[in-house]
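INFO batch 0412 | record 1 of 1 | parsing
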Amino acid sequence: MSNATEQYLEAMAASSEAVDVPMMVDYLIQDSLARGASDIHIEPWEDMVGVRVRVNGVLQWLVGIPSEHQTNIAGRFKVMANLESHTTGLPQDGKAAPDNFGGVQLRVSIFPTVYGEKIVCRIFNPNAKTFDISRLGFDDETLEKFKELTSKPTGLMLLTGPTGSGKTTAIYAAIGYLLEKHGNAVAVSSVEDPVEQNLDWVNQSSLNPARGYNYPAALRSLMRQDPEIIMVGEIRDEETAEIAINAGMTGHLVISTLHSNTTSGTFARLINMDIEPFLLASTIIGVLGVRLLRTNCMHCAVPYTPEPYALEQLLQFEGNEYLQALMDQQGFYKGNGCSACSNTGFSGRSSVNELLVCDEAIREAVMQKRASRDIQALSVEAGMRTLWDSGLQMVVDRKTTLEETLQKVAADQV
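INFO prediction complete | emitting tokens
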């Protein structure tokens, strides 16, 4: 399937005109937005410059560009992002706001390789983002619990999941819900690295580590700004964790993210940062685990037989009412691939989640430093719907494949 960049390069090759690199870069951005990409990878190889885009979490080929244009392409992105255009051989990072793309912003990363500078652009498209809490993919019960937790006046709410799993979107949606609920009667501040989307009535600040403006420094200053709700982009170290926990204990609601393999493993992760268990037990009000699963293309979804390994793993889980549901409705569904989904079989992504609410039993388990699997079991007993259950419900509803669910959430079960 031809795209605007390919058509432009073909037209230039058929004429005697030189390639206009700024125009070609604009076509690259245009084609990436048309595919709904989250990232653009411009990679110098031995025989060409390969351009791939990440769509629904998976890299797709976009176009190959003659190697002779690699230096000028890198130079163009450096100019757009206000980087040092004369500097090569060193990593550089910046932000660009290209004209004529409706407020789209790019986070540009330049990285030296043996064949030249690789460019990766993270796309922040305000037209493709939705921060409506009711559209996060939560079931009704989880949504009500999440609203209830984020409405608490104090405490620490954590979100876990891999990069690009929708954690920041969920936080923005929670803040949007609180602003809708309280209007401009609440003071909301955020510290992010970087700010991904500008929010009305939120005082957002981007870190600048090169000048010593990191999470601890930002949070110390922010505590003197009289905030009521604080968003911390990520808890990365003990110092940031201590300040966030202290803020949650002293009359603030703090919402942040943390990299943990499992939702219940969040506590062990923080204890490994030398945070005292009693501080965690008294401060953390809930942990939300989120993942994004690719959804079947509605135009080409057909019945299919999952791979043997997938069925074998499915049968290993005890008490599997979902398996019976799948058998009752006679089968699994998968996109066959068509022009509407670029022959991938998938169209868009949907969130699956699990919300661990810190009740008395969980707090006691954290105080005793019990294993993550024990905390997970206590949460399930209290009614938590797991990531695995949420993923299988999508399979039952014919929204995704069994293999996609196994790939994204089965390994995360305790």
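INFO post-check: The two ends are 43 Å apart (CA to CA).
INFO record closed
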